[in-house]
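Hello forum,

I keep getting stuck at the same step: I have a sequence, I want structure tokens, and every attempt I make locally crashes halfway through. Rather than fight my setup again tonight, could one of you with a working pipeline run this one for me? It's a single chain of 394 residues.
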Amino acid sequence: MNILIIPAFFRTKHRPTIGSFFWDQARALKQAGHKVTLLYCDTYSVKCVREYISYAEAASEECEGIRICRMRIFCPLKHGMEGHREAFARGIGQLYDKYIRPAERPDVIHAHCCVWAGYAAMKLSDQTGIPYVITEHATLFELHKDQISRANDRYIRLAFGKAARVICVSRAFAGRISEYRASDDIEVIGNVVDLEQFKPCDKETHNGMRFLTVCYMNTEDQLKKKGVDVLLRAWKDFSEKHSSAKLRIGGGGHAVQIAAEWCREYGIEQSVAFIGELSREQVAAQMQACDVFVLPSRYETFGVVYIEAMACGKPVIAVANGGPDDFVTRENGILIPPDDTESLVGAMEQMMQTIPYRKAYDAETIRNFVRERFGAQAVAGQLGHVYETVRKGS
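Reply #2:
Ran it on my machine without issues. Output:
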């Protein structure tokens, strides 16, 4: 089939990991034999005029057999959802008219995130008659619902309502957007993990247990969303008993200094290392070298980093907050309650008691679980079935 993908955000030369799960899914579809084209519009507000002027992304390129077409558009009101909505949709329409020939007419448009890729897909569908599917990932509907104006809510309902199919990345999240689409009319298909990049390897030798977390840290709110504050409070108590254990924190952003200050406040700076912004290759290497991946997010619609760590054969500590509930089991990790420092300390203690003695977690079992659920072949097969029903109109 011929699939046109519209992501709500996508990687740039300066931020190459943004939207990596969209790209992994596009690659999976290509590997499954589908023709895949990706359209993306970079929108810039007056706050980002320098980035707009220095824009250096290719207008059209082919990467791994997937054509990527993109453009920039100046959007003075981008920081307001209304301005971004119309600018983004207009840009996608212009890209379609410029790059998609009649003979290359897609069978299905697949938008990632209703705001505003789903809206752009709806407008393009109205123009072309091509059915569209929305996969929803955005924490907007859980954490920032109060930011949706009445006008935007109307457009969101319209886009969800007119979609041929709506997909969510977890069962809990499907329930959260059921006010826009009946939950029994929502498919649940998880994200893809790149099993070629994220895989077990010989672990480097190090003294003591090594815990790893990876997340973006652009603002203090983002730190708290990812539970970095909970993690560091728990690490204070945990490291007092286990001085040989180390915590490595990967990820860039302006709020790294806030997290570092928390470490100084708790007196744990000697056992915590901030390793900076990481490429995907570096993330994989860090996951291969750790003993346990831990990220006590207050909310996740899915949580790609967990399955990436599991693909490397590593057990995880996650929060029962929505997304990880679907795939973290006693065979591959520990789920703890949200915002629970004491439970996090207990989970790390449990890992200390089991990992060195190989009592609980088998790397091959963990990886095989991920391959069967979230490997490229598995996810592409599920999506292919959705596309086929959409094409047939059923």
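The longest helix spans residues 81-99. If your local run keeps crashing, start a new thread with the error log.
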